[in-house]
Design a protein that fits this description.
Layout lengths: L3 E4 L9 H10 L5 E6 L11 H10 L5 E6 L4 H10 L3 E4 L7 H10 L3 E6 L8 H4 L5 E5 L14 H15 L4 E5 L7 H6 L4 E4 L1 H4 L4 H16 L1
Parallel strand pairs: 1-8, 2-3, 3-4, 4-5, 5-6, 6-7, 7-8
Helix pairs in contact: 2-3
Length: 223
């Protein structure tokens, strides 16, 4: 599966968001990542479906990957699917009926993802693996950008990769939290194929140089 670099707009300049997203895509990004926080499920408040729709109206055609750190999720699933999202993922703790929420995403023509915080066990996958297109492993505690990568996440990524490979399904394995040039190779070696990076990209002086360096490190992990 082709590796994806997914810049998180949480770290972008919101006064110039359309230009920022265009710039990172031109620099080699593959998909655009949305961190949706509700100041309830996590202690922060960020963006909603209107921002997604605004980027589509601006002319952004690249896939948009929406990570819901919010509860309840079903209405947001509907709103983001209408606003132009391609991937929608949520935390199992945020839905009373996880299977139903996953199916709701797919019924609205989006790829369905399940998110695992550092302390969330992977046992949910025993019952849901057939209904998932993306698994997102959080390598920080959700709620804020700019945090440091939790090293114990590497084992969780490796275990998830084994589960995906044994399932026989084409499921993306995404990692979000503290992803940088200096550690992306070991994250890729552990089995990830989709890499969310916010401050590492948007706070850099040269988006293209940063993304190219990340892709080189990913390639080195596969050799």
């Amino acid at each position: 599966m082709k590796p994806f670099i997914a810049p998180s707009i949480l770290s972008a300049d919101f006064a110039n968001l359309g230009q920022e997203v265009s710039a990172v895509l031109k620099a080699g990004a593959d998909i655009i990542h949305f961190d949706v926080m509700d100041n309830r499920f996590v202690p922060n408040l960020t963006i909603g479906p209107m921002v997604c729709q605004s980027l589509r109206d601006y002319g952004i055609s690249a896939p948009i990957d929406v990570h819901l750190m919010a509860e309840p999720v079903d209405n947001l699933i509907l709103d983001f699917s209408k606003a132009g999202a391609n991937y929608i993922s949520f935390h199992p703790e945020a839905s009373k009926h996880v299977h139903r929420s996953l199916n709701l995403i797919r019924e609205n023509n989006c790829k369905a993802g399940l998110v695992f915080s550092p302390a969330t066990p992977l046992t949910w996958l025993e019952h849901l693996i057939d209904d998932i297109d993306l698994i997102l492993i959080m390598s920080v505690n959700p709620g804020f950008g700019g945090q440091s990568f939790i090293e114990s996440s590497l084992k969780k990524i490796s275990t998830t990769r084994e589960i995906i490979d044994n399932s026989g399904h084409d499921i993306r394995l995404e990692v979000d939290g503290g992803v940088k040039i200096k550690n992306i190779q070991k994250i890729a070696a552990a089995g990830a194929d989709t890499f969310v990076a916010g401050s590492a990209i948007f706070n850099s002086d040269d988006y293209e140089k940063t993304i190219s360096a990340m892709k080189a490190e990913i390639k080195a992990a596969k050799n």
